Amino acid sequence: MSIDVFSSWAIRNIGSTISIWHKELKTGIGLAEEPSELGIVDGQTSLRFLGYVTQQHRERTEEEIDVNTEISDDQADNRRKRIVQAYEEISEKFPKQVAENLSAAFGSPAVDPFLGNVRHLGSIAPKSQSQHTPMISVRGTGRFIQSRKQAREIYRDIAVRYLQNLESFAV
Length: 171
What we know:
Layout: H1 5-31, E1 52-57, E2 59-61, H2 73-78, E3 81-83, H3 85-91, H4 94-102, E4 114-119, H5 124-131, H6 143-170
Parallel strand pairs: 1-4
Antiparallel strand pairs: 2-3
Helix pairs in contact: 1-4
C-alpha cells in the first residue's frame, strides 16, 4: 500500500470486507449439497492475511552531505536512510491499524504482517514497464545498476518474510 491516509482508510475497509467474505463463505459452504466435495476449503481457515508492503516512499539520509563531496556507491549504500517525516508519521500508524482491523485474519500468532518497504527506486519502475521486463532485468547503466541491486534486495527480503508467514499456516 502507499503511505498515505487513503491506505489507512483502506485498512479499515479491507478488515470489514474480509469479515463479510468470511460470513458469506461459511453460508456458501453450509448451502453446498455435498460440503465434503469442497476439499480443504472450510469456513474457519480459508481466508488469511499474509501481510502488507508499503511502497513508493521517499528517503533521506540521516546525515546531510555536502553536495561537493564525492562518495562511492558503497559509501552511499552504507549511509543510514530514513523515511521522510511526512511518510513516517502515517506509516507508524499502520501496524496498530492492521492489528485492529485484520488480526482476526492472521490465522497464527507467528504472523508478522509487515513484510517490508519498497522505497521509491527512481525511474526503474517506469523503465521496467516500458521494457516489459522485471526491475532486476532493466537494461541501462549508471544509477540503473544500483537500482536493480536495491530492487533485488528489497523484493528478496519481502519474499522471505511472505514465505515465513505462509509457512506459519502449515504449523
